[in-house]
Amino acid sequence: MKERGFLSFLRLIGTLYFKKHISAMASLKNVETPQQLYNSITEASIKEKRVAWYNTIRSIVCERISDERDRVPSHTSMWRHWLRCCWVGMMWNNATQQDLNEDFPEPEASGWKKKSDSCFDFDWECDEVHQSVQKTINFLTKGCSCKLTRCGSLCDDLLDGDKGHCLLRHGTFRTLCVI
After folding, report:
1. Fewer CB within 10 Å, N or C, the chain?
2. pLDDT tens per residue, range 167-179
3. 8 Å CB contact between 134 and 142
């Protein structure tokens, strides 16, 4: 039940972003409705197909945005948000019971992370994505350590580890998107 609810939630959020960027969807994927895009996905299971559909929308939107506030959350962060919603809903449903702790899932298994003995914080992404986002933030705020003379704000990607310098792409700066 929890997973079906999440897939509906993902469909709702994906559809909102699809409608907001419908011109890009039509030109890049040759589809006019979210259903047409969904039907074009060839994944095996319903969950895989829905996640692939959402990620397709996310990657197209990521190419178009110029403001961080327009960034589409990853399906992992959406899943963890959904888990937190379910956890809070269970808490409210069981609020009249005498012992809430009995058979109640741990917050850490529901999209929360423990900060201290009595405090919890949101857990949006896995560690790999946290590191990638931090790398992107460092790059955007501090620049790169490229030794090329033409570099600086012209960089559009993170450092190329093999060559020891950043990658240049026609002197334009693009928004980095963690997918």
Report:
1. N
2. 443 333 333 334 3
3. no
- Residue 144 CA to residue 141 CA, distance in Å, equals 9
* C-beta of residue 177 within 8 angstroms of C-beta of residue 158: no
Say whether 122 sits in a helix, a strand or coil. strand
Q: Of the spans 40-44, 100-104, 123-127, which averages the highest pLDDT? A: 40-44
Closest CA relative to residue 163, chosen from 179, 171, 151, 153 = 151
Give Cβ neighbours of residue 112 (< 8 Å, ≥ 6 apart): 84, 87, 120, 121, 122, 123
Q: Which amino acid is at 128?
A: E
For the chain, the farthest-separated pair of C-alpha atoms sits apart, in whole angstroms, at: 69
